[in-house]
Amino acid sequence: MADVQDNIYVNLRRAVSLLVNGNPVAFPTDTVYALGAPVNYISCIQKIFDIKRRPMNMPLPILLGEARDIDLVACDISDAARNMMRDFWPGALTIVFRKKPFVPDIVTAGQPTVGVRIANHSTTIDIVKWVDVPLVGTSANIHGLPSPLTAQEVDHQIGDSVNLIIDGGKTPGGIESTIIDMSTDKPRILRHGAVPQEALEKYCILY
Length: 207
Known about the structure:
The chain is 31% helix and 22% strand. It contains 8 helices and 11 strands. It has helices at residues 8-20, 42-52, 70-73, 79-88, 105-108, 122-131, 151-158, 197-200, and strands at residues 3-5, 25-28, 33-38, 62-63, 74-75, 93-99, 113-117, 135-139, 164-166, 178-181, 188-191.
């Protein structure tokens, strides 16, 4: 059974210790509760698939602690994409880039692209920065069940499979991040969400 804790500082330290030793941790973000693993720790990422019962052919998104870390995980970043990062991160915009070899294929389901964002939540950002490597961050639920908005909902679904759930209160939820594909010369929105299409059209022509 997971330890559900609301002492943020103490649990940031514990979360980092668990993550760097290959154990996924659940924590709040600006949308829903997430289940995280270091992006370069393949066995820890495999545990996320197992815990969520998530099909292996479904890519996982990446959470950064700060925008400059994008160059660790992505390449061929256009000026338009960098302008979006400047204006919408931290926030609910996931940008799809061509991935660098640092990102293992298990994260992208063998695809050459990866979705990346910075969550607008201090706990999420602190965890990523303290681990000192980007994290895979996916909703902390059983695949096919509702995404959890509270630590208690996480505990109900996957509490028997994780060591720590950081209780940051109820997350806003309700509106998912917008996903925009900037990996080609024909940008397009893959999922409409919190950032409206018209807000992105001033950065590039959408197809």
